[in-house]
Design a protein that fits this description.
This protein is mainly alpha-helical. It has one helix at 2-56. It has a domain at 23-52.
């Protein structure tokens, strides 16, 4: 009987450890997704600034500096 109980306990501790790892990975994925979205927003702003500059002929100095949006 002791062997079965020990195996069950080992299985439960393994599941708990796996759950902890999954939760940490989920938090990492959320953080990475936020960084990707921030970079995407920045890229869109840069593309827009470039298009505006090219439409003006590129001869004027930009009036406003593109600010980085902090998240």
């Amino acid at each position: 009987m002791m062997g079965v109980t020990e195996k069950m306990w080992d299985a439960i501790t393994t599941v708990i450890k796996m759950n902890d790892k999954v939760e940490r990975m989920a938090a990492t994925i959320i953080s990475q997704q936020q960084k990707i979205e921030s970079l995407t927003e920045r890229m869109i702003r840069l593309e827009t600034a470039l298009e505006i500059s090219l439409a003006r002929g590129g001869s004027e100095k930009p009036r406003h500096r593109i600010e980085r949006k902090e998240t």
